[in-house]
Structures are given as structure tokens and as C-alpha cells.
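Example 3.2
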Amino acid sequence: MADTNREMTKGHSPLVSILIPNHNGEPYLKDAVESALAQTHPSIEVIVIDDGSTDLSTSTLAAFGDRIQWLQLSQSGACVARNRALELAKGEYIQYLDADDLLFPTKIEEQLPYLTSGASDLVFCRGTIFGDGKPERPKKAPIRELADTDPFLYCIYQRLSTPAPLHRRELLDRVGGFRPDVPFAQELDLHLRLTAAGARIAFHDSLLYRVRHHQSPTRISQGSRPPGAYLQILLDLSHILLKDSVYSLTSERRHALANLVAQHAIYAYRNGAPEQAATAFQMARQLDPSFHVHERKWYLPAARRIGYQNLEWCLSKIRKWNQKRRALFHATHSHSSS
């Protein structure tokens, strides 16, 4: 149930809350907030949670006066900041926006009818990429034909950005918002939980947001990650989807998730996380023993005959042997030529 304190204002237009987490995003923060305030939908509130910034972000926010609501927390991560903003939000509908990205003015106005009609719980759209020295261009569009597509499968196969969807608040409350301990791939994690919890989705084929690509260390997507980091997110997510009664995994969903887990188990093994990969292969079998991976044609029958871990162990030995052979070949020919 939506909170009874949530409002319908300005001629009964539904209130939409635009929620922005920020950590040291001062160079871009003003533009992000202004893009939120510039929405053509007549009833919005903008809430910014500053996640322990040490730059001039708070001065930027204070300059907006009572046009926005903002709060500073000790640094806890983007997911905690987003969840705190959700707690403060009064809107029945929620728009997330990162502090370095932008919304086109008509984003809320164009997407909201999909939700107010009662037919959908979140609606995606297309966006553009800018800020990296290249011409601004559209991001790769997600699947457009949704009539026969399970929402869970739609989300598992897409690279979805934080500002793309407009959400019905009720579903976010149902799943508890973002998982606080997810360091990246937060959108995938959230959308899979939302759709497993019954969210109905729609796609509005318009360019309605802009994702800024830059090299600032404050970007979530920047920086190196330990081997198996992404796999661990998938493992934790799989455990949650299996054990929590709010989620429903059909056989088709289990198969798709098993495929994803197994594929990243292979990557993790090859990148130096064999123990984590072993746990992931067990999870994939628990989800669906008939899972598939995208490898060479001989890989799957060989793995099913001797086991994925044994096959990867053998392949690692072959790769090391080939590396030594190539190094010896180059050393020998280099010595001969000299």
C-alpha cells in the first residue's frame, strides 16, 4: 500500500520523487539537479542525499534553497544514499538519477502514463552517452517487443542504466529498495528482484536521459575489481531469490539465471577465483542442472563428462604450457637472430 502521506498536488497530478545520491560530484551536481527541476511534469520533488562529500557539493546544494530537499550522511555508498532518499520521498512514483547524469525535460511526462494507467510498474526508455570527447550518441537500445517477454528475462539480458526506468513506489518498497552491500551492477540486481517480485514492465522508445562518461574516481564503474566480484553479486542475488517468499522463479527464470551464474563462474575461474567458481557451479546446478554456457562447441559435452572445474583446471594447464612454449620459441629465435 502506498503511504497515505504521499500527495497528489497541482491539479491532482501525481507527485514524482526524483532521488539523487552524490559523493564528490560537485563538477556535475548542479547540472543534474537542474535537469530534475526542469521537468515538464508539474508535480515533482527533488531529494539529494550527499554521501559524505569532501568537495564543495554541499555548497552547491545549499544554493538551491527550498527548491530541493537534501541531507548529508557519513559515507556509506550509493545504495544506502538511494534508500535514505526513498525513505524521505513522498511521491507515489520514483525516478533515480546519478549526480553526473541528466534527464531530458519531458522524461517524467512521457513515461508516467504507463504507470498511472495501472498497466505497468516500471517503464524503461532509451538514453544517450556524452562527456567522453566523442559525439553524443544513443546507448544501445534494449529489447522493444515485450508482449511475449518475461520481465525477469528482459532485465537479465539488458545493460540497464540507473535513470532509465520510472518506478511505481510500491514495488520498490516490496523488495526493500537497493541492496546496500552491492558495490556495482546495482541496476541489474534491483531490476531482477523487482521483476521476480512481480513487477510489470513497459518500454517507451524515446531518448529521455543522458549518461555522462568521464574518468572521475567517484564513478561507480571506475576502478579495478577483485576476481569474482561480479560473480559474488550473482551468488548473493541467487540466494535471495531462492529463499525469500516475495520472489517467484519459474523454471525459465531459473534456467536463465543458472546460465548467467555458470558463465561468470568460468570467467572467475580463469581470472584467479577457483574456489568462488566452484561455489557458483554448485549454485548453477541448484538453479537448473541443464544450464548452458557460451563457449566453443566441444566445451559443454566435455564439461558435463569430466566436470566444469576439472575441465577448467585442464585448460589452465594447457594455457600455461602454451605460454611457456611461445616464450621459449621467441627467446630461441631472438638469440639466433642476434
